[in-house]
């Protein structure tokens, strides 16, 4: 856990990211070294008794120099007060939802990462927490679903995988007017703080699967929670260190390294995605393209199921693999992969069909990616 320094909010996002970890090492290293120690020496008994976890180190589950540096950077990027770096995106989901108690109620967008729904079902079965869904259309319909038991409104925007964009400010305003105690939590994995800062739009908590764009190299598993309301910090921190789902020092170092190039990577992801979307819109095999206009995530429908198998089996530059947000382009079929745990009726209602593909556009040359799609669809 690390608290963000207020004066850092005056810096641009590019500067905050590029400076990640700089000025943090007491020996003056520009690139913060990796601290692999699992525990730390107490200089005196008095300091051990009066230990302050926000300033000092004792045991790596509680804090490490690398994790603290990445949490500080993430809190600054999102405009929050405190950041938590976790061992996976799902660990971030668990931490964000740890404030729920038996009898509480959560309302979520109906189009989310499939693992979210799997965890919602687990909490309903084992903890007696109730859930409802909102289709992301009329905010009045969301407000009508709110009750005295509602504790969280959960959004992912753009949505996964149908790319619905939600007006965070409008939702947060309406929800907090109904009850200021309801927490609006936003999954910002697709857009990152480069394109969207939910806390500045009125949300209370923002989460990421840091495995995706924040790390951007398909080489680590991580999650992020950033909090605006300082009253939540202690409650989250107790759960965080008790469960031990903290990000280790090496992966914290990797994530910190990756954040330095976040802005330039997101710009190139967008440029490549826009070029591919233009191709897909006129491709005879493509029925419909879903793209919010920025970022690297593109979903599209092929006209025939046989074309789906042909494309997935024959791409050579693009990789048929789950996950997203890395420098290498990845393509998946959500119906069978990322959203397999979502009930079939809900998949059908959302348009998550066997002809829908989700493409995470990487940093390769856009022309090479387009050629790869063309040759795969033409393969005989």
TrEMBL record:
GO MF annotations in UniProt: homocysteine desulfhydrase activity; methionine gamma-lyase activity; pyridoxal phosphate binding; transaminase activity
Entry's family note: Belongs to the trans-sulfuration enzymes family.
Catalyzed reactions per annotation: L-methionine + H2O = methanethiol + 2-oxobutanoate + NH4(+); L-homocysteine + H2O = 2-oxobutanoate + hydrogen sulfide + NH4(+) + H(+)
E.C. designation(s): 4.4.1.2
Modified residues (N6-(pyridoxal phosphate)lysine): 212
UniProt keyword terms in alphabetical order: Aminotransferase, Pyridoxal phosphate, Transferase
Cofactor requirement: pyridoxal 5'-phosphate
Any Pfam family: Cys_Met_Meta_PP
UniProt key word Flavoprotein: no
Protein name in the entry: homocysteine desulfhydrase
GO biological process: transsulfuration
Organism the protein comes from: Limosilactobacillus mucosae (Lactobacillus mucosae)
